Amino acid sequence: MSSELISVGQLIDKSWDHYKEKFQPLIQVALWLFLSTFLHIVGMMLAPAGEPGELLFSGTLSTIEFLGTLLIILSTSVIYPLLLLWIALGLILMIEHQAVNKKMNAAKAMKETKKKFGSFVWISLLKTVVVFLPLLLIIPGILLVIMDGIQHGIDTPSAGGPLFLISIPIALGLALMFSIQFAFIGYELTLHHKKGLAALKASRNLVKGRFFAVLWRYLIPRMVFGTFGVVLLMAALAVLGMSLSTISLASPAGGLTITNVFVTILATAITVLILPITTLADYYLFDSLRKTK
User: Fold this and answer.
1) Number of domains in the chain
2) What is the pTM of this model?
3) Does residue 260 lie in a domain region?
4) pLDDT tens for residues 42-84?
């Protein structure tokens, strides 16, 4: 057993080779993300143009417009992230089977991961709380600046200024550290059946003592594949032509335009293409961490 972690180059190469070989079943899992896109477009057909959050509480919407606006908000802020979590579990399970040459189709992968979906939502919430908790360190500096401004005027130097500036890199550094330490909770849950705090602890133990080695291996493949996705999106938008941006579709209130539809569908399509390969990179990093622990 090798004691060295897989290199960044090997991660990218293995992920790409696996992606090309098993493209169809991987994409079939990721395609579930279009459910959110469909609901979002239906919402745009029913809702008027404007900021959904403001429109929802404006008191000027008809029942149909209210439902459309609500559907836009739910499809973006609730359904989309929940689908991402479910798809992530399905991809992890499918990739694990493919890596050991076991057959698994998209339907079976999604069906089997439904049992662990609730647990994944829970530990993902725990991870989110832990990652964002360090940002509270910024608050004392902000409050001190505000209090000094009220008491002595905004032109008076405040001790809160230096405290605020010092707290920012500390808070961001801790948030980054926790996000990397707990990056593999989905793999621990799906492949090793660890739930709740046990999944968080297991993920953290994998990274322990190898933080910077994991950091680069986690971020660089994402940057490479993400850059490819952005370039692909920009190219697709250019081909389709942004000159159609002012043409309205069958939305009574004008909330749906061809550009809205194109951008929504294309953004989802790029995510569907990129999500499997970034999951592959994470899987092979997780596998290497486990084998070299």
Assistant:
1) 1
2) 0.85
3) yes
4) 888 887 766 776 767 776 777 887 888 888 889 989 999 999 9
